[in-house]
Amino acid sequence: MTDRQRHGWPALTHAKAHHRVGPVCSAADVPLSRVTEDPQLVTCPDCDGQAEFDALPDDATAGDPRVIELLREAKRGNCRKIDGVLVDMTTAAAILTVYDALKPATRVKLAALRIDRMAQVAWRLLRPHV
């Protein structure tokens, strides 16, 4: 007999996140007893694909002088992980479009931000009415 949650659905076993407490899929209200490091025991469909991406090491962190260089590589098609976030080609192109249009003093401020905040600023500037 399988372990059941409150609503009668089977309880899922989640993959353990490497950079934070809890599961990789960030599911809410998951007891830590349902989080495992063994990939054979994972039954959560959301955790299945994210576990291998979470295990990748970060290429850079916020404030690293190589962030812009790594974004240029990501724009050319090489996916990069910065601050625990996978950066795709489209997001890297958006950030670099804004970065290249800024004055040097403002470029330093943008490059010092976390990657999620950099992407948020870039998309707000490129799509102001959405």
Describe the protein's architecture and organization:
There is one protein chain. With 130 residues, the protein is mostly helical. The protein contains five helices and four strands; from the N terminus they run ββααββααα. The protein has helices at residues 45-55, 67-75, 89-101, 104-111, 115-126, and strands at 14-15, 35-36, 80-82, 85-87. A two-stranded parallel sheet has the order 1-2. Helix 2 (67-75) packs across helix 3 and helix 3 (89-101) crosses helix 5 (115-126). The termini are far apart. The mean pLDDT is 79.
Give the arrangement of secondary structure elements:
Blueprint: E1 14-15, E2 35-36, H1 45-55, H2 67-75, E3 80-82, E4 85-87, H3 89-101, H4 104-111, H5 115-126
Parallel strand pairs: 1-2
Antiparallel strand pairs: 3-4
As laid out across the biggest beta sheet, the strand order is: 1-2
What fraction of residues sit in β-strands?
5-15%
Largest sheet: 2 strands, parallel
Q: Over all CA atoms, what is the radius of gyration?
A: 19 Å
- What coarse outline follows from CA principal-axis ratios? elongated
In whole angstroms, how far apart are the ends? 49 Å
Low-confidence stretches: none
- Quantity of strands, as a count: 4
| SSE pattern, N- to C-terminal | EEHHEEHHH
The average pLDDT value, as a whole number, equals 79
